[in-house]
Amino acid sequence: MADQRVLLILILAVVLSGCTDEKPEPVVNITVNETPQPTITPAFTVPEPSTVYVEIRGSEVNPSILTVTNGTTVRWTNMDSARHTIKGRNFSSPPLNKRDSWDYTFNKSGTFEYNCSIHPASAKGRITVG
């Protein structure tokens, strides 16, 4: 009789296991196209002559690296409370107080590094003219 009860319990368990409202979750195939991420460079490239604006703030210039074409004008604006100058090979600004600006047009190819002659260790930048 015990064997019959065990068999009956097993039959009921099998029958009842198929009687639930739960449906199996559908299988979803997802294809992921991995697009290569662009390389981020610290340089700011200007493809044609125009005016580019550089801010001096916190004794730093932003952007600090520029790539421009011949004929591009760069305008530096001092947003610091301290006075700054822009000094590079063959160009130099007067002292710039807060909110003062100074423009220089690059008409020769080459790489021009500059800094603040008042604070030589800070406000450094580089402009590549092509």
Structure write-up:
This protein has 130 residues and is mainly beta. The chain has a domain at 44-129: Cupredoxins -  blue copper proteins (Immunoglobulin-like, Sandwich), CATH 2.60.40. It contains 1 helix and 10 strands. It has one helix at residues 2-17, and strands at residues 44-45, 51-57, 60-62, 65-68, 72-78, 87-88, 91-92, 101-106, 110-115, 125-129. Strands 1-4-10-9-6-7 form a 6-stranded mixed beta sheet, with no helix packed on it. Strands 3-2-5-8 form a 4-stranded mixed beta sheet, with no helix packed on it. Strand 6 (87-88) and strand 7 (91-92) form a beta hairpin. The protein is elongated. The relative contact order is 0.17.
CATH architecture of the domain at 44-129: Sandwich
Q: Spans with pLDDT under 50 lasting ≥5 residues? A: none
The portion of residues forming beta strands comes to 25-35%
Gyration radius, in Å = 35 Å
Supply the number of helical segments.
Answer: 1
In whole angstroms, how far apart are the ends?
98 Å
* CATH C-level label of the domain at 44-129: Mainly Beta
Which structural class should the secondary elements be placed in? mainly beta
Largest sheet: 6 strands, mixed
Number of strands: 10
Give the CATH topology of the domain at 44-129.
Immunoglobulin-like
H and E order: HEEEEEEEEEE
Average pLDDT reading: 80
The spatial strand order of the largest sheet comes to 1-4-10-9-6-7
**Shape assignment:** elongated
At the fourth CATH level, what is the homologous superfamily of the domain at 44-129? Cupredoxins -  blue copper proteins
Name the helicity range.
10-25%
